[in-house]
Amino acid sequence: MTLSIAEMRNQLFALDLTCPEDQKQYADLLYQFILINEGSRAQAYLDTVGKVTVGIGFNMDASSAKTQWAQVFGSSVSFAEVYTKKRNLAEIEIRKLFDLSISARRQEIKKIYGAAWDQFTGNEKVGIEDAYFNAPVLVNGKTNFYRQMCCYVQTCDQNCLLKAIYEIKSNSNPTRHTGIQNRRDKQAEMLSTHLCV
After folding, report:
1. pTM for the whole thing?
2. What percent of the chain has a predicted confidence (pLDDT) above 90?
3. Which residues, 6+ apart, have CB-to-CB distance to 119 below 8 Å?
């Protein structure tokens, strides 16, 4: 059964991310949320900028792709066979690639947000991780979103959170692309706690 965004958000909000069981639930809900937004393909394909991609946005043409692949699979899954569409990935293999990719991105996010990162609730982290997975420029340290989220952590002022949500929902899709806006709306809903929806 697929959870609604509100159900995911409320479960994430309630998690204690210092608890290993809750960390696992966080990882599973993050995977579900990004999967809803990104989609997944078992067979390699060309993405919108002409890069060979597989799974949930794994760029096989990236300079680090083969190294990351070896970290995940060793020699058990042939990079070349997947790249040339001679072999598809199984769902469990897609998840393993995703877990590696998201882990690397999370380290980048932690550097950007510093101590503030540990203050965010699970749903806020998922909203930020999804935005960063999609387009890091949405939530990096030079954005109004970043400034408002840091203000929110420092002051506990819900207005700062609402301004950050506004940045994602209303100021991050200047071309008003429908698909992108659908994702921004989901990110905004995820960032909202059940207290301010």
Report:
1. 0.93
2. 92
3. 153
